[in-house]
Prior knowledge:
- The structure holds two protein chains of two kinds.
- By secondary structure, chain A is mainly alpha-helical.
- Helix content of chain A is about 70%, strand content about 10%.
- The longest helix of chain A has 20 residues, at about 105-125.
- The mean pLDDT of chain A is about 85.
- In chain B, a hairpin with a 5-residue loop joins β3 and β4.
- The longest helix of chain B is centred in the last third of the chain and has 39 residues, at about 280-320.
Amino acid sequence: MAAxxxxxxxxxxxxxxxLEAATVERVRGELPDQxxxxxxxxxxxxxxxxxxxxxxxxxxxxxEYRPSVSEPEYLTSTLRATLAGASRPARRAAxxxxxxxxxxxxxxxxxxEAQETARRSRRR
Amino acid sequence: xxxxxxxxxxxxxxGGVHLLPLRRAAPATATAVWLSALALxxxxxxxxxxxxxxxxxxxxxxxxASRWCWHLVLPLLPSHLPVDGHxxxxxxxxxxxxxxxxxxxxxxxxxxxxxxLVRTALRRASLGSGPAGTVLVGGAEVTLAAAGVVRPxxxxxxxxxxxxxxxxLAAGLxxxxxxxxxxxxxxxLLAEFCFALGRLVPMARRALQEVExxxxxxxxxxxxxxxxxxxxxxxxxxxxxxxxxxxTPGFAALSGGDGLALRxxxxxxxxxxxxxKGSLRKVAxxxxxxxxGAAMAAVATTAFVMVPAVLASEVLSxxxxxxxxxxxxx
Lengths: 124, 330
């Protein structure tokens, strides 16, 4: 049962990262097999909000949930820790392997974002 | 001979700890005993360097060695340099002491820097507040940790908040609060310091790992005393087992270091032994008293042997350095 709860939380976060903001009904519709009962999905969303991973906003009569931790923030720390444990040549080779698989459009977008990140950290 | 006996007693005491069934003992007791073993290692190294620096110059062995080195290996130097070879030989004997001193300073600086780095890393990595006053950080791995020395905080990763259910999260958080409430960070810092000084004595790293393990067991029991299900805590620890890269002096992660299987086994089979027996303060006091006793005995033995040797050497040097004169004619 514990594993199931954790799994559903991960699925709900995945949906909200994709949609950026959604109501209970919308999240439920995006989950495999509807994610169970409406109240189950609502409980999971409220739990994630209580834990600080989601924020609640009023959208008309409904309540919308938005992630307060972005997907890149979620992933970056893990990637950084994984790469930090590798040797310098292995780190470069792994990054080159990943970047090499990208198209020109993605590469240009990554370059732009990397420059923006560097500017932000310089300002800090 | 007396020194040899003192050294043997100290080494037997240190080695004897490795034979004790401490993994079955209460965590506080085991921690105190292993910490004492580390402290004794540091003491052995300190005493040896003092003996080398103070007592050795008055021995004929050193006089013969410095004569051999100064007059046979480096025959040209005495005739060109206005330096007494024996003084150089005696100065060389201070090197082990200087090595120990520099190791102590380097370790103190390193530990201070490591704790500062944890604080900086925490500030940079923080994404906001997590549940119950914790600091939320990124990361898909399940990370729960007590971070910092002066103002310790419980750190929780986004991955942990997504992967753990309510009971697992509560048990994991209480485990980390246990590290903070029981002031494990100071024990860990002291253990690291003793390890840095006594690392040349065999199996010092093993002793350090055992201290880490028993601190984790102590935090487990602290959490269980707050009415958490041992199986739930074991499940949280199992999920956190991937986040070991965080282990530094200023960090205590839920998964701990080695001995994960022991902790999981203990939790799964021994929910009934969850209560805390004995107080860390009492046991630590007893262990500290035992260590202090052994330390004082060793220091007294060393002084007992060294003072006459130093006095004898001063008498000899006052009467024209008999041993130097015999061994090293001008």
